[in-house]
Amino acid sequence: MKKIPLILSTILACALSAQAKLNVVATLPDFGSLAREIGGDKINLVVLAKATEDPHFVDARPSFVVSLRNADLLIDGGAELELGWLPPLLQNARDPKIEIGKPGRVQASQGIRLMNVPANVTRAAGDVHALGNPHFTVDPIIAKAIAQHIAQSFSAVDAANAGFYEANYKKFEAAINAKLQEWGAAMSPFKGQQVVAYHDSWPYFAHRFGVNIDIFLEPKPGIPPSPSHLTEVIAQMKAQKVKAIIVEPFHDRRIAEKVASATGAKVVEFSQFPGGLPGTDSYVKLVDTVVSRLAAALK
Amino acid sequence: MWEVMFWPIVACVLLPWLLVYLGLHVVQRGIIFIDIAMAQMASLGICLAVLFHLDLQSWTTFGIALGFTLVGGAIFSVTGKRSSQIPQEAVIGISYVVAAAAAVLLLSRAAEGDEEIKNMLVGNILLVTPHEVWKCFALFVVVGVFHFILRRSFLLVSFDRDGAYQKGLRVRWWDFLFYAVFGLVVTSFVRIAGVLLVFSYLIVPAVCGINLARRISRRLLIGWVIAWVGGIAGLFLSFWWDLPSGAAIVCTFGAILILISFIGLARHRVRAGAATDSQ
After folding, report:
1. Which end of chain B is more exposed for a tag (fewer CB within 10 A), N or C?
2. Facing A62 at nearest CB: one of B50, B118, B245
3. Among residues 36-75 of chain B, which lie with CB inside 8 Å of chain A?
4. DSSP for A54-90?
């Protein structure tokens, strides 16, 4: 019986220390991995989407609402990538701390100049995002900016650990800066080369590393490939001697294989998200992996 | 958990009664897949609205979707002949695949990403809003009263077609009325709960009722109890094990049906045994 107070106090202590940690929810695994770099063990992190899941479509589960309801801080893209599934979740969670404009809401796209902003949004152009292309975290320099934004927001909400978050940001920044040279060197022989992608997720990556990724297996974003479009793509690929087709885990790989066998190109599995490919549990490892895979395919 | 599960539970308490009742009709008529065909017709209408760049939430879009379900109702009431070589289920199946394929064709031209359309057509019971629940409930009450007032004719047409013809009822018109109202109910429930859940609520409680009782009122009562138990149990399981809610409810219904079938079988055995004993 003597043990009971001890057990109770242990439970209480656990509960208190859990309380002391910042409850952070990230919509997508790329934001999650940056939050982990900055927050370390000072945060409880919940990432809603899986790394192998299409970020446009995510199936809601009850725990999503619970996590959002208890969140001190929410990191989302802010560029309509999660448009299909996040708004109803937020509506149900009704957590005032993570409303837009509050310190507890980090919209990663804030302060980032998005590429391919449509001049006028019509439905005829396909599933375009009105604010511009939302797949921006794959550019390491943008990732640094997001990490800094996250660090500032963590510090604003949890001032006691501001020094810790700031130091972690510096560490992340240094790691990226050290790697940028290496990645640039790996990609430099392929400057200006054409690469084909299944979906238009890579303009930021292409811009950073000097390749062209502007032919897509989808005729328009979100529209499945049609025979006539694929015929056109195959002709373009042959004319430009394209060597690589980028697919993500949630795309239909067979279509890419079919085009690859018609053109002699290689299918390269890519992911925007840490954890989407084997051995990519951190952001740096993810960029390492996609850069070396693409370089190997283009050789 | 209440904060998260309250409205889904309210939806699962307030809404299924009408579906269970309509399910008895549908199972009796042997047109099991009509709900999916109707829902697909409605979504074809919405795809057409997308093609013309109409606002998906507007009344025009709703009108087009309703128009398509009425066309579906007309097709099914014309083909549901008294004696035909072609089973009604074949026509329903054909309507479904053609409507689904036509939707694919329309969307490839409309070039709308399918996120919004999927959202519009297929709801998630976990994320229902109070507004949606009350709107749907109000519609169900209206339809329920309508069916209650005209219950004699509707029941006769579904359960005793020959009798209906003999009595001189205009069966085809009653069929059309039934399908039209049915389409309205199905499409509005699909929007808050998804296709899988509509199908389960229509068919599983009705089949359980038929398994255990003969009179319609008994079957209805059994069906209601099962719909409530299955729906609420499914929601609880979905919360405890953190599963997608709609799919959890459907699988709970599957488990309940297996259980009920065993009970039905056991009772049948006992009765058969008693009959041979008394001989």
Report:
1. C
2. B245
3. 50, 53
4. -TT-----HHHHHHHHT-SEEEE-SSSTTTTTHHHHH
Place of tokens 């109202």: B181
Task: Please judge whether B115 and A127 are an interchain contact, meaning their C-beta atoms are less than 8 angstroms apart.
Answer: yes
Q: What does the block give as tokens for A74?
A: 């929410």
B3 shares contact with chain A (CB less than 8 Å):
yes
- CATH H-level, domain A18-109+118-179: superfamily: Nitrogenase molybdenum iron protein domain (3.40.50.1980)
Question: In what helix (H) or strand (E) does residue A216 lie, and over which residues does it extend?
Answer: strand A212-216
Task: Give CA–CA dist B19/B62, Å, rounded.
Answer: 21
Are A18-109+118-179 and A182-298 equal in CATH topology?
A: yes
Chain B residues with CB under 8 Å of A220 CB are 111
Beta carbons of A78 and A107 less than 8 angstroms apart:
yes
Q: Average pLDDT for consecutive 10-residue bins of chain B (279 residues)?
A: 87 95 93 90 86 80 90 88 77 92 79 59 82 94 96 91 88 92 90 87 94 92 96 94 91 94 85 69
Question: How many inter-chain contacts (A to B, CB under 8 Å) are there?
Answer: 75
Domain residue limits, chain B: 2-201
Low-confidence ranges of chain A (pLDDT < 70): 1-19, 120-128
Residue of chain A nearest B119, judged by CA positions: A84
Please report the pLDDT score of residue B86 as a whole number. Answer: 83
Q: Do A236 and A195 meet the contact criterion of CB atoms below 8 Å apart?
A: no
Enumerate the H helices of chain A as residue ranges: 3-20, 29-39, 62-69, 86-93, 140-157, 162-187, 203-209, 227-240, 253-263, 283-298
- Cα–Cα distance, B11 to B126 (Å, whole number): 10
Q: Which residues contact A160 (CB under 8 A, 6 or more apart)?
A: none
- DSSP classification of residue A264: T
Nearest beta carbon to residue B111 from set A69, A88, A124: A124
Domain boundaries, chain A: 18-109+118-179, 182-298
| Residue A299, strand partner residues | none
Q: Which CATH number, 3.40.50.1980, 3.20.20.70, 2.160.20.10, 2.60.40.1730, labels domain A182-298?
A: 3.40.50.1980
Structure tokens at A274: 């840490």
Nearest Cβ partner for B239 among A62, A88, A126? A62
Question: Does residue B76 contact residue B175 with C-beta atoms inside 8 Å?
Answer: yes
CB contact under 8 A, A221 and B113: yes
What is the third-level CATH fold of B2-201? ABC transporter involved in vitamin B12 uptake, BtuC (1.10.3470)
